[in-house]
Amino acid sequence: MKRIRLSLASILLLAAFQSGNGYHLLKTIPLGAAEGGGEYFDYIHFDPAARRVYVSHGTEFKILDAGTSTVLGTVSGLKRDHGVALVPALHRGFISDGSAAEIVMFDLTTFKVLSRIKGENDADSILYDPASRHVFAFNGDSMSATVIDPEKGTVLSSIQLGGKPEQAVADGNGMIYDNLEDKNEVIAIDSRRLEIKSRWPVAPAGQPVSIALDSGHRRLFIAGRNPQSLIVMDTATGKIVAGPYPIGQRVDTTVFDPALALVAASTGDGAISIFHEDSPDKLTPVETVKTEYGAKTMALDPKTHNLYVSTSDFNDQRRPIPGTFRLLIYGH
After folding, report:
1. Where are the domains of the chain?
2. Could you list the pLDDT tens digit for every one of the 332 residues in the chain?
3. Upstream peptide bond of 208 is cis (omega within 30 degrees of 0)
4. How far apart are CA 32 and CA 291, in angstroms?
């Protein structure tokens, strides 16, 4: 079996884990109350080229400078946003506004809204696929994917998925992989033909929510909520080659750091489960990072290897308390 050759940085980081000096909290960035109310938060997106962090916050999206942690701007006037997809060549970004059933197109320099594209109910996970040059918004309750031409700002098609989609990932070569949470399966979508090519069960995992990709080894890292576990899937065959590995409750994001060969899954009970990819078919748990309750979404800075999560304080009904929203940065 082919093994992964570790970089010096990876060796040093693993040594730090083993000595008890792994990931820890570096910085807390208060972001205040959402404009117009709507204390809800979802995906975080890291733009490595521009060194920016995009943070979902209900009725707005905050954009921060990764170096200084200062807020560069805000996309406001949203109803209940989820994710963002960036198309730098067009200087445009696209936000999925689930409650408004819209995809909001905005300028990457001024952060002003350019147009509101009619989408579908519960627009959630969203990504830009460089192979097809389309934006794909995945709609939970509508069980569909809205396909958008980012240059014209128009809807090209709607793909019926046959289940509720969650986090999706594109391989850059024309395939998109997405979890269907209620069907316990992963679908492979041909992004040029706009059709589903494969459906693969995730058992013994269940309720798959988050997903990350090792494009070099053609492996998907899929985390589910019932049972609370992470599996490794071959993108060519859909075969589960490793796992299930136990994780925390209410997972919502999985990321892969190719430079360090690390997989991380963030969970709402306040933990990040970190694994090392020893080989394409084997993960080894290396650390469970204690974060804060509610910090279920996450982004990776591939340059510093820092992990970003967001959360807030909660009342007795476990609803976010306005004015307490914050971004947390974990590093080593």
Report:
1. 1-43+204-332, 78-201
2. 444 555 555 566 666 655 556 899 999 999 999 988 778 999 999 999 999 999 999 999 999 999 999 999 999 999 999 999 999 999 999 999 999 999 999 999 999 999 999 999 999 999 999 999 999 999 999 999 999 999 999 999 999 999 999 999 999 999 999 999 999 999 999 999 999 999 999 999 999 999 999 999 999 999 999 999 999 999 999 999 999 999 999 999 999 999 999 999 999 999 999 999 999 999 999 999 999 999 999 999 999 999 999 999 999 999 999 999 999 999 98
3. no
4. 19
Cα(280)–Cα(62) distance, integer angstroms: 36
C-alpha–C-alpha distance, residues 139 and 101, integer Å: 9
CATH architecture of 1-43+204-332: 7 Propeller (2.130)
- Asked, colleague to colleague, whether 1-43+204-332 and 78-201 share their fold, the answer is yes
Give the CATH number of domain 78-201. Answer: 2.130.10.10
Residues 304 and 322 sit within 8 Å (Cβ to Cβ):
no
CA 63 vs. chain centroid, Å, equals 16
pTM of the model: 0.94
